[in-house]
Specification:
The structure is a single chain. Strands 1, 2, 3, 4, 5 and 6 form a six-stranded parallel β-sheet that branches. The protein is globular. The mean pLDDT is 97. The longest helix has 13 residues, at 13-25. Helix 1 (13-25) runs parallel beside helix 4. The protein contains four helices and six strands. With 147 residues, the chain is α/β, with parallel strands linked by helices. The structure holds flavin mononucleotide. Flavin mononucleotide binds next to helix 1 and strand 4.
Amino acid sequence: MSVHIFYGSSTGTAEGAANAMFDVFAKAGSVELHDMMDGEIDALDPADFHVFSCATYGEGELPAGSTEFFEDLLEASPDLTGLRFAVFGLGDSIYVDTYNAAGKTIVEHLTGLGATQVGDRFEHDNSGTDDVDEKAVEWAEQIVAQI
Ligand SMILES: Cc1cc2nc3c(=O)[nH]c(=O)nc-3n(C[C@H](O)[C@H](O)[C@H](O)COP(=O)(O)O)c2cc1C
């Protein structure tokens, strides 16, 4: 099994978290990192496991350049039955109405295509005191125990 870690990041926090998780997921198989901006929707494979580390911007959207990933995916509308994924969301609670909305959107889109969420969706708060990379490792350890 391969683990595909996709990150959606504008200023590097979600990308850093994705990198921090790399060694944890390497316990489960070979790991590939993907910038969602590269639009590699073909890397979604029911035989593999998928992790999304993604920030929220705008009015609750994915970061600029990453929104097209799901536009392309929804247009292609593949049957993702059997595909398993987990979501590590990043946001900031000062954005009350759209706090961590991108992570919720990812869950909706993937489950809407038949995929199955594994574990709890994490919500990192940039206004909080939690170290994002430490939390990413802790979360990844919980997820890897379930795959
Ligand atoms: C201009 C701007 C808009 C943002 N909008 C939201 C938002 O709507 N909801 C949210 O939860 N966080 C929002 N954030 C917070 C980011 O998602 C958060 O800081 C995240 O850690 C950034 O990740 P990145 O460095 O990978 O881009 C916003 C941040 C900026 C700078």
